[in-house]
Amino acid sequence: MSDSPTYRKIIHIDMDAFYASVEQMDTPELRGKPVAVGGGSKRGVVAAASYEARTYGVRSAMSGALAAKMCPELIFVKPRFDRYREISGKIRDIFYEYTDLVEPLSLDEAYLDVTRNKKGLPSATLIASGIRQRIYEETGLTASAGISVNKFIAKIASDYHKPNGQKTVNPEEVIPFLEELDIKKFYGVGKVTAEKMYGLGIFTGKDLKEKPAEFLEEHFGKAGMHYYHIVRGIHNSPVKPDRIPKSVGAERTFFENLSSEIFMLEKLKHIADELEQRLSRNRISGKTITLKIKYSDFTLQTRSKTLSYFIADKSLILETAKELLYQEKLQNSVRLLGISLSNLNTHKAEQVAVQLRFDF
């Protein structure tokens, strides 16, 4: 038996400024201009920004007001999620031509395990290149890719040559690659954690690798061991083709605060309808209904009820949400309502990718 190490071959595909790129593709006059999807209302939040907008510092999750201040020429467009889902479906069909081990993270990104693939190709790098070419030919959009031995490194690598590029981190390159990396580029290390690490003298992967496990656990709790392992290239989570969500939900933020429950019920009807569509698409039902209420002072309240049977029908969802709304007096006027369904009935067995040794 060979003592040679075995590796998975993982690709992370990430569409480039997906929502904004779709809008620029469908509306030629938007091409080459700073575009923000969403964020057009006074309380709106940017869902996506074109690369032209990003040069001004506009980013997703930023308030529309701030985005407009940073980029006065910014063009706001309403999101068209049906269109994004349509194109996302075409992209996933391309993925499935190569492997069934596809783990979608959102409409615009996914992990693929191509260790064993349907085309019998030995090179994950060439597979990624072929997939990106197919995406461009069939949708007119560009994608970036990262290729490596696990999901963590592939995710980091996909951001390395964006937009419209790819990077392969071969097995023997993993440790040098991680050691040279700025700690803020580690996937999962957010701004707050990065600042804390900087304060502890951890600026690069090499700095992180030099810290003992005890030190990391002391300062970062359970996450400490996660950081200890990933900086050594250890991340064994397989690509999960049937990611089981813990909950499915829909919510709306209102232009004006609502104080009348009658108006809220009207909004809940639309939210329940949207939730039913999501449940239907994913063939999911659940037992626990949660009503989310965000008040005008930004305090958040949730109210839940668990039924003895599974539901996915909007009339039953709305009936329970209505009951939860009237469960107790509202504390203030309301700026957001949401309904989610949890305790779901999807219990598909996870498929585990087989590790084999191949050339990258």
From TrEMBL:
Name its cellular compartments: Cytoplasm
Q: A Gene Ontology biological process annotation?
A: SOS response
MF annotations from Gene Ontology: damaged DNA binding; DNA-directed DNA polymerase activity; magnesium ion binding
Q: Which family does it belong to?
A: Belongs to the DNA polymerase type-Y family.
The entry's protein name is: DNA polymerase IV
| Function description | Poorly processive, error-prone DNA polymerase involved in untargeted mutagenesis. Copies undamaged DNA at stalled replication forks, which arise in vivo from mismatched or misaligned primer ends. These misaligned primers can be extended by PolIV. Exhibits no 3'-5' exonuclease (proofreading) activity. May be involved in translesional synthesis, in conjunction with the beta clamp from PolIII.
Q: Which UniProt keywords apply?
A: Cytoplasm, DNA damage, DNA repair, DNA replication, DNA-binding, DNA-directed DNA polymerase, Magnesium, Metal-binding, Mutator protein, Nucleotidyltransferase, Transferase
Q: Kindly state one GO CC term assigned in the UniProt record.
A: cytosol
Please describe the quaternary structure of this protein.
Answer: Monomer.
Which reaction(s) are listed as its catalytic activity? Answer: DNA(n) + a 2'-deoxyribonucleoside 5'-triphosphate = DNA(n+1) + diphosphate
Q: What does the record give as EC number?
A: 2.7.7.7
Q: Where is the active site?
A: E109
Q: Which residues bind Mg(2+)?
A: D14, D108
Q: What cofactor does this chain's UniProt record say it requires?
A: Mg(2+)
Spell out the InterPro entries in the cross-references. DNA/RNA_pol_sf (IPR043502), DNA_pol_Y-fam_lit_finger_sf (IPR036775), DNA_pol_Y-fam_little_finger (IPR017961), DNA_polymerase-Y (IPR050116), DNApol_IV (IPR022880), PolY_HhH_motif (IPR024728), Rev_trsase/Diguanyl_cyclase (IPR043128), UmuC (IPR001126)
- Domain (UmuC): give its ranges: 10-190
Q: Give the record's cofactor note, including how many are bound.
A: Binds 2 magnesium ions per subunit.
Which residues make up the annotated site Substrate discrimination?
A: Y19
PROSITE patterns attached here?
UMUC (PS50173)
